[in-house]
Structure formats: structure tokens, C-alpha cells
Amino acid sequence: MAETHTPRTHTTHSFTSAVFPLETMEVPGGTETILRGGRHLFPLLPRALEGVRRVAVLGWGPQGRAQARNLRDSLTGTGIEVVVGLRPGSASAADARAHGFTEENGTLGDWLAVAATADLVLALIADAALATHHRALFAALRPGATLGLSHGFLLGHLTATGGDFPPGHPVVAVCPKGMGDSVRRLYEQGAHINGAGINASFAVHADPDGRATDRSLAWSVALGSPCTFRTTLENEYRSDTVGERGILLGAVHGLVEALYRHFLLGGDDPVTAYERSCANVTGPIARTISRDGLRAVRDGLGPAGREAFDRAYRAAHGPARDLIAEIYDEVADGNELRGVVLAERRLAERPLPPIGGSPMWAVGDRARAGRGAGEPPVDPLTAGVFVATMTAQVDEFAERGHPWSEIVNESVIEAVDSLLPSMHARDVAYMVDNCSRTARLGARRWGPRFQAACEQLVLPALGRGDAPGPDDPAAAFARHPVHEALAAAARLRPSVDIAVS
């Protein structure tokens, strides 16, 4: 299997706007249209949202909590009201009230009642819950109201069950490429550094009134997205769902568990083994990629380190690519989505226990407590395995025809600019146990598969010292087109470190 690919051309790469100034981004094999965000665009929001007087945010999970607050702040003074809708008895109501969304001021209410009064309805409740209750939501929509999603999961469910979105309604998506906490934290940093934020993709699935693109772009700008790129709802849920099970969460979980055990068996004490595996990925490796790109991880090593990186990359790329391809097939076929919907019923009675009970995670608190001002060096073995897995996901998405903007955001930028910094502060196990149920279920299913592949295939290959073959993935890494795509993406926003409390 070839190690580098150029995505097939899709018409979704280009779009036009009657309101916002667009730019063209050079990517391997062509160009893509993007919208560079920033607070200087906020005065254009009322024009782009013409006809929208009320925005309903349904749900107060990580995305709902962040998006409702960002939208309210961005739309202050425009006359466009942001309201929150929650299901009866929601445990999140108290927190929504604490952030100013209350029944008394008319900005908090029952989710279906709120949806019935809004011109733009953002359905940000949990994926499985939305799949279960979507008919009630569709029936509540006022004529011509726009339905907005931040994940294409519902499309996958409707496709699998023979359903469809209600006719006559624009259906759009704006999907931040980061967790809700990052969406809010970087938005707040954007008040001091214009353009700080989390990138987002957008999709227009139905556009009966011809205004869906600008409405979507306005939503993304109001969230603080520094770069908005176009995709399709189908591409979005496939890349997002695969990414959660792959390099964004599931693969990280499995790989660092395997590497931790490997370093322990090699004679390291537990804290050192933790720092060389988990803390290395979430700390210096992630920061190097965020700041200088994937190639910089290898370039920053000495000659012996580069040789060790290449051996690890060579051993890890093939097994990782096979796993990512298997995950993609499971998502595309609907198996992963069906599993999430089925789990909703089961977990209502028996919630998932936390994964943080393995010996590795008990070491995390000690390791974090002992961190000094300096940063440990990049471990070449860990770096080679992790970067190979990340690049394998890039290659699979390229082979499946995703645009480069989506590929680098779902496989690299979201990891190093959103998820990994939070894992560094709180641990990978914490992230798995506190992410969305869709991501949590996927990480728990596929993390052990990555761990097994690392223990059974990757590390034994390192021990054998296999010579590189004619299609050496480590040699191909230096000329991989992802470096060009990442460099183009890096020019679209200022360098801002996420503040993680």
C-alpha cells in the first residue's frame, strides 16, 4: 500500500459568499476556498443571518455550553437572541442558569418549546439521544427554520434507518475541530489576540432558501473559528467518528498504555516510563507539531534519535494504517453508529465505569506533581510510533477522498491544539471518561486494539530490527504532502496556546 496520497477532487472544496471575504488556500494537488475568521467580521453577522431573530441551542454538553456562550457574546447588540433548550429534568439546567440563561429572562426552556420559537435551531444534544428523539424535534420546527448540527451522526443514523431530514428546511452543520472547553477558552483568548479560536468545518446539506452558506459561515465566525473550510455532512461524520477512534483519542489511549509497559519492562521506574510514553505524546511531541509541524519532531532529534524514530515509524505505520482502514469501514457501513444508539438504552441502566484503574493512570498524578519548569526531551521511539499513527490516519483519509483542510484538522490540528494539551493537564484516562458518549464508546472499543497492535506487531518488529523494504514509509515521510498542507493551515491563525486550568 502506498504511503502518500493526494485526495480525489470534490466540488465541495470551493464555495462563494455574498457577505464574507473568502480566501484561497494552496494545498497539495490544488486549492481550497476558506474563510479566515476574526472579530473584525462580527459586524457582518446580522447581514449573514438575515431573517434570524432567535437562535436556539439545544443541549448543554461541552459543545452546547461553549457554543451558546460564544454566540451570545458575538451577537450582543445585534438584536438576535440566543436561547438554550434542555430536556425535562436535565441536570445541566443549574449550570446554564449560572451562566445567565434563565427562565426569568426567557433564554432557557424546554428543548422542543424553544425549538418551536427559533429561526436557527442548533441541535447539540448527545448523538444517540438526537437519533432517538429526532422525529419530535423535526415536528417542532417552525416552517422554514434552519436546522444546524455540529456532527453528522444524525445523517448516518437516518441513512441507516431509511429516514431523512424534513423537507423545506435548510440543514447545515458547523463542526468545531476541538472539544467544547477549547472552543470557549480560545474564543476568550480571541478577545486579546484577534483570530484565536478553534477551526471549524461547515456543510450545507439542504438549502431551499439559498442562504444556507452565509448562515453557516456566520455561525462559525460567531464561534470564533479562525478558519472555516467546507466539507459534506457525510464526510464530516466519517472523518470525525474515525478520528475519535483513531489518533484523537482511541489510538492515544492504546499506544501510550503499550509504550508505558514496554518502558517498564526495559527497566524504567513507573514515573520515567509514564513521562517517556504518555507525557511525551501530550507534552513535547504535541507542542512541537503544533508549533513547527510533523517533520520538526524528527528534525529536532540527534542522529541516533532520528535513526530510532525511523525504525519506530517504519514498524508502526502499516499496522496503524490497517486499523484506521478497519475503523473507517465500520463507520461507513453504519456499524459504529448503530453501536452508539444501542448503547444509549443499555447505559441508561448501567453507566460505563471509568478506565483510570490501570496502573499507568495511578502514576499520572505523581508525574504531574513532579513536573518542573523545563520540558523533557522528545523520546524517539514514542515519537516514531505516534507520528506514524497520525500519518497513517492522514493517508487513509486522503485515500478516501477527503479534502486536505479536513484531513489536517481531523488528524493533526485538533489533536495538538485541543485534545492533547487537555490530556497533558488531566490525563488521557480523564479525557476518555469525560468526552462525548460517542467518542468514549469508540475509544474504549478501539484503544485496546491499538494497544494490542503495538504490543504484538510494532514492538516485536523493533526488536527484530527489520531492514527497510522498497516502499519504506519512513523514507516517504520526509516528502509527505501533509507537510505542505499543514504549513498552509498554520498560516491561517495566530499561534495561541490553549489555557488549560
From TrEMBL:
Cofactor (UniProt): Mg(2+)
- Could you state a single Gene Ontology molecular function term? metal ion binding
Its pathway, per UniProt, is: Amino-acid biosynthesis; L-valine biosynthesis; L-valine from pyruvate: step 2/4; Amino-acid biosynthesis; L-isoleucine biosynthesis; L-isoleucine from 2-oxobutanoate: step 2/4
User: Which positions are annotated as binding Mg(2+) 2?
Assistant: 240
Q: Could you say which residues bind Mg(2+) 1 here?
A: 240, 244
- In the UniProt record, does the keyword Metal-binding occur? yes
Q: Does the keyword Amino-acid biosynthesis apply?
A: yes
Question: Where in this chain does the record put each KARI N-terminal Rossmann domain?
Answer: 35-235
Task: Tell me which residues make up the KARI C-terminal knotted domain.
Answer: 232-374
One GO biological process this protein is involved in is: isoleucine biosynthetic process
Protein family membership = Belongs to the ketol-acid reductoisomerase family.
Query: What is the protein's given name?
Result: Acetohydroxy-acid isomeroreductase
Taxonomic path: Bacteria, Bacillati, Actinomycetota, Actinomycetes, Kitasatosporales
